[in-house]
Amino acid sequence: MLSQLKLLRNVGAVRNILAANVEVAGAGSFLSPIQVREKSSGTPINTVVMFVPQQEAWVVERMGKFHRILDPGLNILIPIVDTVKYVQSLKEIAIDVPKQSAITSDNVTLNIDGVLYLKINNPYLASYGVEDPEFAIIQLAQTTMRSELGKISLDKVFQEREGLNVSIVESINKASEAWGISCLRYEIRDIRLPERVHEAMQMQVEAERKKRAAVLESEGIREADINIAEGKRQARILGSEAEKLEQINKANGEAEAMLAVATARAKGLEIVASSLGAANGPNAAALTIAEQYIHAFDKLAKTNNTVIIPKNVGDISSFVAQALTIYKHVSTTGSGSNQQIGEIPNHQQANSFEVEASDDSYEYFSDKEEAKNFKRKNRSKNSPKST
After folding, report:
1. Is the pTM of the predicted complex or chain greater than 0.70?
2. Beta-bridge mates of residue 191
């Protein structure tokens, strides 16, 4: 009876594989057949002296009732009365969980399979608590996986893959505790999406990548503009500070220059004043003013288009006499005293003459005779005619 049940389960598993291959035939891929781990159909025969391998548990029945579990090593049984009914492996077992469909909380159908790792902790419960422990664990893993996937959305399936595995293991251990089996871990091996959903996810990923690229590019441009603006601001600040220092230094230099010029001029005036107090100081000053007066006519034609010159330009002696007269007038007015200029050298006394301080007509003529003639003509014009 037990072998018939196993045969029917294997036939059902083969049917499931064929149906799954037909579903994915359009994608050009087929599922690998399920690796069904079958226990040996026969149990060891009682030969009185029994040698049990390590990491195996042999369940012995005496007269159809559980008697004991043989330990690894040498064991002695009673012939005919004792029989080895079940052989359980105490090693960790890896079982393939067949591919199955599940619906997420956002109504997306997934095809998912996995690998289950379990271990028999209690050979007695594994033998008498369930008919086929491995088959029961596989069915429990499939139903638990469907239940856990229905609680989360498609996006969280990939994000919470580790948490999903832990939840499935906890759910299996709660149910398999009565069977003497503990589930060590469960790993989701493959998740297949519908073709349209897969294309939509690819488009979403591409859009996200483009968005990140655009954001990074805009941030780079912003940083570049900020750096350029900061550089220009710093350049302007440094330029203004340099210009400020330049103006300060220039002003200080001009002030020092003006101070030096004023100091030099003050010293020069002191020297001139001391020189004028000497015996021939006024004569030297008169000579200097005369020379400057003569050189002034040399610059008239260079600075202005309109030139006013005396009538007798060639009479140098009259120029000197006029310059000395002006100096005498200035010196007598500025000092407020009646000091007179010292004697003029002999070669200039012949051409000297007195000028009335209140008469302005002599400023326009270098010769005294011409000035007198001009005044005479004016007087004759202004005088009333006799009738």
Report:
1. no
2. 112
